[in-house]
Amino acid sequence: MTKKEVTQLSYEITGYAIKVHKELGPGLLESVYEKCLKYELETNGYSVRQQLSVPIQYYDLEIDADLRLDLLVNDTIIVELKAVEAILPIHEAQLLTYMKLLEIPQGLLINFYTLNISKSLKPFVNEFFNRLD
């Protein structure tokens, strides 16, 4: 994928998150938003993997740490969903680590416990994004 295509995909995912939020509103469990966003994305032709295990390789040691990312869309963007009063630095660090471990170029941190998804959403890119054409 190109940077432009990844950016467009991110924009489209954001649109579906806004749609889910407008329909359901804030105050539900993260798992509800996750299932609804996955439904919207798959219904509209996207490949979505849910609760994907994130392997950790430490030199020649493979660690089963039971880390699970929320959604991986088109094997290109990790979507981490929250339903919390405030996004904390640890939430951002978690997403950035998943992106690094899986070599994924972009991540979206979306908090559904808000009145406006657009203002609370945080996009992240890393060195893998810079390697795209």
Automatic annotation (TrEMBL):
Pfam family, one: PDDEXK_3
InterPro entries recorded: GxxExxY
NCBIfam families given in the database record: GxxExxY
This protein's name: GxxExxY protein
Species, as recorded: Flavobacterium taihuense
